[in-house]
Amino acid sequence: MKFRVDRDVLAEAVAWTARSLPTRPAVPVLAGVLLEAGEDGTLTLSSFDYDVSARCEVPATVSAAGTAVVQGRMLADIAKALPPKPVDVELEGTRITVICGASRFTLHTMPVEDYPQLPDLPELAGSVDSHVFQDAVMQVTTAASRDETLPLLTGVRIEIEGDRMTLMATDRYRLSMKEVSWTPQRPGASEVALVRARTLIDVAKSMTAGEKVEIALEAEGGVQIIGFDAGGRATTSQLIEGAYPPVKRLFPDETPTYAVAKTAELVEAARRVSLVAERNTPIRLAFTDGMVTLEAGQGDDAQASEAIECTLTGEEITTAFNPNLFLDGLNAMGTEWVRLGFTHPAKPVLMSGLKSENAEDQEEFLYLLMPNRFVS
After folding, report:
1. 251-369: which CATH number, 3.60.15.10, 3.10.150.10, 3.40.50.970, 3.40.50.2300?
2. Distance CA 87, CA 10 (A)
């Protein structure tokens, strides 16, 4: 194997492929990146840990086709540190030589025959606008659990019905949902998938440079797999098994009491007031006509309060929230205005972004947050 490749192209490709390599691989070869130089002038880099696979294709000048497995993170560090010149890579026996300008590195290879066979990209289910998908993923994953002892809640439930795709996530204290348009491969398609939130976040951050992200779904031997393909990069991941809780029904059909405020003003006020909120203590919000007052702390503890303008429809209401979860929801809105809808002070608030001050001009991202008990 022998090829020449642009330094920036190599560095970016290796970094992306090696990003999900396990820190403590079950077998040493899983710490490697598979390099395949083809006679068609394509260099393919792959990684796989039996759960998530990644494959990246880049152009290269191939003098001799071949295959090799090298330590992924070391190669990524080397490629990033090379000078901005063409990189020559050559396999000599069980070693790979990397030459770039006056820099020269020699790396041991691992047995190619020990490397596991990568899963094929499943059958194409459809495609979605990359920026729409990125925004939806980054909003919805805000509510996904980080507790690995509850694997189901670390995932995002994707529901596909025709040309609509709905993403949902919850950690039991909050629930997020976003509905977007997409282009199905088969009209009237109906699919459900539970995907790890960290997988979706990685896809949203690294595979949305082009116009579209292709999504593939398939069951292989009883194991459900999802795949994403965009711009010469492809990744697959096993789906999370289990029955996701029926959380969609928790969203109220209507909220007779609601307030509208400027998102940035509410974020800044909540952030300042929460500075005196001790661990696990809430901030209180009292909504009155034309104003919402935020308070934290009580008794002999440090206290803070701040009032900002808002419009209130319905009865005055007072409630309280975990400040971090409340701020997470506000920051995920991405709109100038936010609508907070209530059915009762002790029941969840339904937060949604507004395209304008008009309370009916809502975006399709919803964030449902459980209130905290508090002493009035």
Report:
1. 3.10.150.10
2. 8
Contact (CB, 8 A) for 1 and 28: no
Single pTM value for the model: 0.89
Say which CATH architecture domain 124-249 belongs to.
Roll (3.10)
**Tokens standing for residue 327:** 């701020």
The CATH number assigned to the domain with range 2-114 reads: 3.10.150.10
- Say if CB 314 and CB 321 are below 8 A apart: no
pLDDT tens digits, one per residue of 276-306: 988 778 999 999 999 999 999 877 778 999 9
Beta bridge partners of 233: 56, 230
**Which letter, b or e, does each residue of 171-194 get, where b requires 16 or more Cβ atoms within 10 Å of its Cβ?**
beebbbbbebebebeeeebebebb
* Nearest residue to 261 (alpha-carbon basis) of 189, 300, 319, 313: 313
